[in-house]
Amino acid sequence: MVAMTETRVQKGLVRMIQFDPHFGEDVLVVDAEGQKVLIPRQEVDADREWKSLVGFVGREIAFVVKEEADGVLIGSRKDAQMLKRDEIVSRLKDGEVFSARVINILRYGAYVEIDGVTGLLKNVDFAEDHTTVGDVLQLGDSVNVRLKKVSSNGRLIFEAVEKYKSPTIMDFSMFEKDQIVLGTIRSIKPWGLYVCIAPNVDALCQMPSTGEFEEGQKVTIRIKKVIPEEKRVRGKIVRVLN
């Protein structure tokens, strides 16, 4: 039975999404032990705003009941997240490893969730090489993570416990001037783009004068200079592939 007289975290299965004229927005329709609970869009997440709620259908989520209106229970996943957040962050800060569920894949990484508490796992913190989270994992997959840091705005930044390394033929000894090489943008700095072209090899490329760039984009570069004694490569962006 869903509790209505105390603020405690409960769980239920999201059965559907529907527009609710009372709230003037989409709501999650949750089946909690046979009782219907509505969670308005504004109560879905404490950490981010979802453009689409479709990914919640079929998921078991945590929530708290906020009120009962005309026999309908109104819940909040956001409040449940806030109740759980302090406990989970404390355990993360103590170095505990959690199995996190991938809930949204981005070009530069993925949002993952630990018992309703979300955080960011960037590609650079997931793999040793140019592999992105989306190359390996799908929505709903799990990955073992630990806390890397808490950002200035309170966002949790995770790193994979065991960083992924894809099998590849590429290594530093293969690179020569004027080669065209596939790579992935690892980081963007005021002075240029760092493009991973092999495990532990990032080519520094001058920032192109046109176009918008994001971490995780796959590009081809022309190698302009190889510095063997420093194991450094300089290049130029030729084409953006995605």
Automatic annotation (TrEMBL):
Gene3D superfamilies in the cross-refs: Nucleic acid-binding proteins
A Gene Ontology cellular-component term: ribosome
InterPro entries named in the record: NA-bd_OB-fold, Ribos_protein_bS1-like, S1_domain
PROSITE patterns: S1 (PS50126)
Molecular function per GO: mRNA binding; structural constituent of ribosome
GO biological process, one term: translation
N-terminal signal peptide: none
Residue stretches in coiled coil: none
Residues of the S1 motif domain: 95-161
UniProt key word Ribonucleoprotein: yes
Keyword annotations from UniProtKB, A to Z: Plasmid, Ribonucleoprotein, Ribosomal protein
Family stated for the protein in its record: Belongs to the bacterial ribosomal protein bS1 family.
Protein name: S1 motif domain-containing protein
Organism per entry: Geobacillus subterraneus
